[in-house]
Specification:
With 237 residues, the chain is of the alpha/beta class. The chain is built from seven helices and 13 strands. The protein has two domains: 102 residues, Cobalt-precorrin-4 Transmethylase, domain 1 (3-Layer(aba) Sandwich); 123 residues, Methyltransferase, Cobalt-precorrin-4 Transmethylase, Domain 2, CATH 3.30.950. Strands 3-2-4-1-5 form a five-stranded parallel beta sheet, sandwiched between helices. It has a five-stranded mixed beta sheet with strand order 7-8-11-9-10, sandwiched between helices. Strands 6-13-12 form a three-stranded mixed beta sheet.
């Protein structure tokens, strides 16, 4: 099983994910993700991996599944959104000896939208600013396309200690197509601790941003009311 454990808090985990963790023999995942579910997996066989060990994680899961064990390969958020589902299916392609079930989870973009109000009520795009696996030139093309088409845009992986210029470049691109006062929401959740705030396109870089931050940039219709972002769907009110 490839299990989406949600954005970081047990309350945001689906019932299906909880049942999968309870039923499995083995837990495999990135060490910080395993830590978030430690209270739910006592007595399980656990394999923890560091950053950039995604292929190793998936191969171990496949090997253990082939041996007859019921394996839960955990993925933060939803495993099919920047998660482990695709890689597992790629590596197991043609392997008829195992059955792979993918259990959806609450993605960070869903959690962010709920905390910030209702910014995703109309068409939106989700773009990761990490250029570890995708050339920056391709990411920049997508940023320009989303911005010029007036999509609400959610940004994943905006900044890290060694990678701090991408979010600045992304902001500059959006400034070419959007009003400087376009609402921008920032959300982070780690180990159950949530933080969010609303700024605008001019000022949001003044807020603390890291890899655990999800940023939602509004479209031309998005506004703030009562401390919440709202993107109208078009209903007459």
């Amino acid at each position: 099983m490839v299990v989406g454990i949600g954005p970081g808090a047990e309350a945001d985990m689906t019932l299906g994910a909880r049942e999968a963790l309870d039923a499995c023999d083995v837990i495999i995942g990135y060490k910080s993700y395993v830590k978030t579910i430690s209270s739910l997996v006592d007595g399980k066989e656990i394999y923890q991996f560091g950053m950039r060990k995604e292929i190793e994680r998936c191969k171990r899961a496949i090997e253990l599944a082939e041996s007859g064990k019921l394996v839960a390969l955990i993925s933060s958020g939803d495993p099919g959104i920047y998660g482990m589902a695709g890689l597992v299916l790629e590596l197991a392609s043609g392997n008829e000896g195992i059955d792979i079930e993918i259990l959806p989870g609450v993605s960070a973009v869903n959690a962010a939208a709920s905390a910030l109000g209702a910014p995703l009520m109309h068409d939106f795009a989700v773009i990761s600013l990490s250029d570890l696996l995708t050339p920056w030139e391709k990411i920049e093309e997508r940023l320009r396309a989303a911005s010029s088409a007036d999509f609400v845009t959610a940004l994943y992986n905006p900044k890290s200690v060694k990678r701090d210029w991408q979010i600045k470049t992304a902001r500059d691109i959006f400034m070419q197509y959007k009003d400087p006062k376009t609402p921008v929401g920032l959300y982070s959740k780690l180990n159950g601790e949530q933080g969010h705030c609303i700024s605008d396109l001019t000022s949001f870089l003044d807020v603390s941003i890291d890899m655990n931050t999800t940023i939602i940039i509004g479209n031309s219709q998005t506004y703030v009311s009562g401390g919440r972002m709202i993107t109208p769907r078009g209903y007459r009110v």
